[in-house]
Amino acid sequence: MTAPPRATAPPVPVDIDRVLRRATRRLLGDLALRLAIIATLVAVPTVLTRTGTWDSPALSLFPVAAVFLALFTCYRFVFNVRLGKLRAVLRNYPLEFRPRVARKEADTWTKYGTSFTLKISGGGQGPAPWVRAVNVIGRRRWPKEAENGAWVAGDLAFGGVLVVPGTEEALFLEIAKRDKAARARGEAGPERRARAEQAGLVRKCG
What we know:
By secondary structure, this protein is α+β, with helices and mostly antiparallel strands. 41% of the residues lie in helices and 20% in strands. Strands 1, 2, 3, 4, 5, 6, 7 and 8 form an 8-stranded antiparallel β-sheet that branches. Strand 7 (159-163) and strand 8 (170-175) form a beta hairpin. It is elongated and about 70 Å long. The model has no long low-confidence stretch (mean pLDDT 85).
């Protein structure tokens, strides 16, 4: 586990509309790149075969790769497009700066993106639990900028969002251990639960 950095002064507050716009642009950029690769995998063997530049059975692998990439892209975007949830959390909870973010070195590969295990402290609310963090649009890179402190919105008993200063990348948060999460939710009052439901952090009853 890496040692938490020393506390730093809060950076300039982020604008939530800008965070949402950046997340949308990143998502569309990822989609455009994947579509360009798929189109290339389909076009290259077609052009090479028709022009007689290269005629080999190996060219049949290009369309197959294109199909698998297209399926993976659809799968990824079905599970990872959660910009609506990001918007709901940021609209219902204020962003508060937490100066200490420690990360365990072991990361977990999931269908939603790489899951990072963090301890976010400095909020003055007692011992901080370990939480899982996953990039809102499914990116797998760890944003090192968060190690100097980050903005957090939400109620960690139900979940929340971490926003990285500077890059303004957003990651969803939830308590890492299910038993601790269940206990924290059980201790939350009706007002906290209602707010979490409004923010999309917990499924509404009925």
